[in-house]
Write a structure and sequence with these properties.
- This protein is an alpha+beta fold.
- It has a domain of 134 residues: Nuclear Transport Factor 2, Chain: A, CATH 3.10.450.
- Helix content is 39%, strand content 21%.
- The chain contains five helices and six strands, in the order αααααββββββ.
- The strands form two sheets. The chain has a four-stranded antiparallel β-sheet with strand order 2-3-5-6, covered by helices on one side.
- A hairpin with a 2-residue loop joins strand 5 and strand 6.
- It is globular.
Length: 216
């Protein structure tokens, strides 16, 4: 009786051990997941994928000013990387950017950005900072007056604490002045195409415009 029990006990241990090994192999083959986990994995993955997909944010459309109202959603000019360098390419890129900021001022009445990149001794600039905001008072606005710079050139030579001349062809579109009722309260200012010299100085790691004079 005793040997039989011993053999029976050893057989039960062998079967239990073998069964445990099979279960372990099955678990490894399934990546260590239970059936419940395996059945839930595809749905979970699909849900995660769906959640990770970003939803596009609608961008408000730009609308230029006209007789019916002010410009809307005007893009704010961004200083290009090239305009940060104290070099020929840098001073020319900054001159283009400065006139883009002028365009933004005419189109919105906001001259704040212009003041940040312009010295206090620029008479023409000070005039713009006074006159343009007045054209937007009392529910008035302007259309046109936008600038483009088809040609910009400089014989760059780094001179600490000295202005560098930049020759700029400046084109400004015709300006209309609108009252609250949508009628023009004064004669338009005709479009211009002029040659100018912008005097630009590199101060504390950034360009600043000192003045603009017409070519004679």
């Amino acid at each position: 009786m005793t040997p039989r029990r011993s053999n029976f006990t050893r057989a039960r241990l062998f079967v239990a051990t073998a069964l445990a090994a099979v279960l372990a192999m099955t678990a490894c083959g399934n990546g260590g997941q239970s059936r419940a986990e395996q059945s839930a994995s595809p749905a979970t993955s699909a849900s995660a994928s769906a959640t990770a997909t970003p939803t596009p944010t609608p961008t408000a459309a730009y609308k230029p000013a006209d007789s019916k109202g002010k410009a809307e959603n005007v893009p704010v000019p961004v200083l290009p990387e090239a305009a940060k360098a104290n070099s020929k390419e840098g001073v020319e890129a900054f001159a283009r950017y400065w006139f883009q900021v002028m365009s933004y001022a005419y189109e919105t009445g906001d001259v704040g950005s212009l003041g940040k990149i312009t010295g206090a001794n620029c008479e023409m600039c000070e005039g713009v900072k006074r006159v343009v905001p007045k054209a937007y008072t009392g529910d008035r606005w302007i259309s046109g007056g936008l600038f483009s710079t088809p040609s910009v050139s400089s014989t760059f030579k780094s001179q600490p604490d000295q202005s560098i001349p930049v020759v700029v062809q400046v084109v400004q579109s015709k300006i209309h002045y609108w009252g609250p009722d949508g009628t023009e309260y004064r004669q338009p200012t005709e479009a211009t195409n002029t040659g100018n010299v912008a005097f630009v100085r590199f101060v504390e790691g950034a360009w600043r415009l000192d003045g603009v004079n017409p070519l004679r």
